[in-house]
Write a structure and sequence with these properties.
globular; single chain; eight-stranded mixed beta sheet; alpha/beta; 8 strands
C-alpha cells in the first residue's frame, strides 16, 4: 500500500524488517501495521518507546504457523501523529486498536503484550473477549500502580527536567532504551527506534506514557475488574524477562491472579524481552498454542 501523507519519512531496512507495511484509516488517521503469515491470529502490542519493529524476530519465527499482526499506536512507529485533540492516553490507544481489530474481523486470536502493550492489549481483549482465545503476557501490569519502583519511575520521568530531555533530546530512546536491551544491538537496528521520532513534537506520545502510570489509575482500576471478569479463564503464557529493573517482583502477582498460567522465565532478558529473547518467546508460543500444543 502507498504510504499515506503525513507519515514520518523513514523506510525500514528490508533486511531487518522484511514485511509489507499496511495502513488502516482509523478515526484519528492512518495506523500502520503488519499482517504476516496465516493460521491462528496473534495480535502483538508494543510498549514505550517502541513500535511493531520490536516484534520482527518473533514474527520471522512464527509466520509459518500463525497470522502475525503487529500495529503501531498513534504517534508511534509509522502511524499518524494526531493533533492536539489526541491525548496519547492508553485508553485512547486501545480504542483505536479496537477499530483495527474490528476492521480485520479477527477471531480466535492470541494476544501478546508487554510494558504498555499489557494494559492496552488487555483492554482490547476484555472488551471483545469473544475474539480472544489466549494470552501471551510479558513484563507488564494491569492494576493501579502500587509498587515503589513503578511509582518512582513515573514520578521521575514525569518531572519537568525529564520531560524536556525526552522531547528535546529523545532521552527515552537514547540512552534509556538502548541501555536496557541485553542483547547485542547494531547501530542500524537502533536507528529504527530513533528515526521514527525525529522531532520534539513527534515524541509527545513517548513523553505521555510515564505520566499515565499514575494518571491512569481510575482506568486501570476499571481494567483490573474487567480482566478478572472477562479473561480470568483464558489460557495464559507468561514470558518474563528476569533482568527487568522496572517490573521486578511482579511476576508472582501474575501467578497469583492466573494460577493456571504456563510460566517461562527468560534469564537473559530485561525489559525489552522481544529484542533479547525472540526465539525463546516464539518457541514457548508454539509449545503452548501451536498445532501440537
Amino acid at each position: 500500500m502507498e504510504r499515506p501523507a503525513g507519515i514520518v519519512e523513514f523506510e525500514p531496512d528490508r533486511e531487518l524488517f522484511p514485511f509489507e507495511s499496511r495502513w488502516f484509516e482509523s478515526s484519528v488517521g492512518p495506523i500502520h501495521y503488519i499482517d504476516e503469515g496465516s493460521g491462528r491470529p496473534l495480535l502483538m502490542f508494543h510498549g514505550n518507546p517502541d513500535w511493531s519493529f520490536l516484534y520482527r524476530g518473533i514474527v520471522l519465527q512464527l509466520r509459518d504457523q500463525f497470522r502475525c499482526i503487529a500495529m503501531d499506536y498513534p504517534g508511534f512507529g509509522l502511524s499518524v501523529h494526531p493533533g492536539e485533540s489526541y491525548g496519547y492516553t492508553p485508553a485512547e490507544h486501545a480504542s483505536v486498536v479496537r477499530e483495527l481489530v474490528e476492521h480485520l474481523d479477527v477471531e480466535d486470536a492470541l494476544l501478546m503484550g508487554a510494558d504498555w502493550g499489557g494494559p492496552i492489549g488487555l483492554d482490547v481483549a476484555s472488551r471483545m473477549p469473544d475474539r480472544i482465545s489466549g494470552l501471551v503476557i510479558g513484563n507488564t501490569w494491569f492494576w493501579p500502580v502500587d509498587s515503589f519502583m513503578l511509582g518512582f519511575f513515573s514520578r521521575l520521568m514525569s518531572s519537568w527536567p525529564m520531560q524536556q530531555l525526552i522531547t528535546r533530546r529523545n532521552f527515552f530512546v537514547s540512552p534509556a532504551m538502548k541501555r536496557t536491551i541485553e542483547t547485542e544491538f547494531t547501530d542500524r537496528e537502533f536507528e529504527h527506534y530513533t528515526a521514527v521520532v525525529p522531532t520534539r513534537e513527534s515524541r509527545r506520545g513517548i513523553a505521555m506514557f510515564p505520566t499515565q502510570i499514575r494518571a491512569s489509575k481510575p482506568w486501570m482500576a476499571e481494567l483490573e475488574q474487567r480482566v478478572t471478569t472477562e479473561l480470568g479463564d483464558k489460557p495464559i503464557l507468561l514470558v518474563w524477562g528476569t533482568k527487568d529493573p522496572v517490573f521486578r517482583g511482579l511476576l508472582s502477582r501474575w501467578e497469583e491472579r492466573f494460577p493456571h498460567a504456563t510460566v517461562v522465565r527468560l534469564e537473559s532478558a530485561s525489559h525489552y524481552l522481544q529484542e533479547d529473547e525472540p526465539e525463546r518467546i516464539a518457541e514457548a508460543i508454539v509449545e503452548v498454542y501451536g498445532a501440537g500444543g
